[in-house]
UniProtKB/TrEMBL annotation:
GO terms for molecular function: DNA binding. This is Chromosome partitioning protein ParB. Keywords: DNA-binding. It holds the Pfam family ParB_N. Gene3D superfamilies: 1.10.10.2830, 3.90.1530.30. PANTHER family: CHROMOSOME 2-PARTITIONING PROTEIN PARB-RELATED, CHROMOSOME-PARTITIONING PROTEIN PARB-RELATED. It comes from the Bacteria.
Length: 292
């Protein structure tokens, strides 16, 4: 996919070269990125004010003379904060699918990308490549994983979609698709409070996966606050084990009596105690014979 080759995009026939465009003529598109750290953005704005925008934005032309930002919205926002009138851009002649791919790849290249955003971004990139919905891609990945484990026999691994999945993960170079299924897909079903904490960067993703195991909302929220306050991963795992430990089923009392009687040595009992036990055993025998 062209979006994995930024130099080719910048230098190929779809690009019109580097130029300056008025900030007011730039329009952000609906971006995969949802959060912009205010402090980090202010720092960038100070740098932009001092040195200008060093890396050009990628844009595509719109019919009204405006330009849609494909990559570089953070630089655009910083330029606005710094009061710049113009910024450097590279204008690309791309269709909607290519524009979406560029935006997704640019989002995945962010330094402050958290694991949840990365997971969703990779799924959306796969969905775009395969022409599927995100949920369908998740299903395909699970089928591929089940086939590798021998749980299913249909040949998901041999079809073009599976080959496209493998090719994309190789291009990304971050992890294998198997590791993605095992370690990242579980993030999609995180409780909302845990997901928000992960997106904010206030907890690591390994802690998020541990907290997911706690089904009791009150207990989980209390643990979440402790993790935010610095609870260690080791201590968190210990606490989660305690909270999720299943109680051992109680043995039926009559089975316990039968087990103890089987081990009983009447001859070793003191005379008075032996007499009482024998009396109870005779009564029990009579009751059992009544129903025989």
């Amino acid at each position: 996919m062209a979006a994995f080759l930024p130099k080719e995009l910048l230098e190929g026939p779809k690009a019109t070269g580097l130029q300056e465009v008025a900030v007011e003529d730039l329009l952000p598109r609906s971006q995969p990125r949802r959060r912009f750290e205010e402090a980090s953005l202010r720092d960038l704005a100070e740098s932009v004010k001092a040195h200008g925008v060093l890396e050009p934005l990628l844009v595509r032309p719109l019919e009204d003379g405006k330009y849609e930002i494909l990559a570089g919205e953070r630089r655009y926002r910083a330029a606005q904060m710094a009061g710049l009138a113009e910024v450097p851009v590279v204008v690309l002649e791309v269709d909607d699918k290519e524009a979406r791919a560029i935006a997704l790849v640019e989002n995945l290249q962010r330094e402050d990308l958290n694991p949840y955003e990365e997971t969703v971004g990779i799924l959306d990139l796969l969905a775009l490549e395969l022409g599927k919905e995100r949920e369908e891609v998740v299903g395909l990945l699970h089928r591929m994983a089940n086939e590798v484990k021998g749980k299913v026999t249909h040949s998901a691994m041999g079809n073009p979609e599976a080959q496209a999945v493998e090719a994309l993960f190789k291009k990304l170079g971050r992890m294998t698709w198997q590791s993605f299924v095992q370690n990242r897909l579980p993030l999609l079903t995180l409780p909302e409070d845990v997901r928000e904490a992960l997106e904010e960067g206030s907890i690591p993703y390994v802690s998020a996966l541990e907290l997911k195991k706690v089904k009791d909302d009150v207990a989980r929220k209390a643990l979440l606050e402790e993790v935010k306050a610095g609870l260690s991963s080791r201590e968190l795992k210990r606490r989660v084990r305690e909270l999720t430990k299943k109680p051992e089923p109680q043995r039926a009392w009559h089975r316990e009596v039968a087990t103890r009687l089987a081990k009983l040595d009447l001859e070793a009992l003191p005379p008075e105690r032996r007499a009482r036990v024998e009396e109870k055993l005779r009564e029990l025998l009579e009751v059992l014979e009544e129903g025989a």
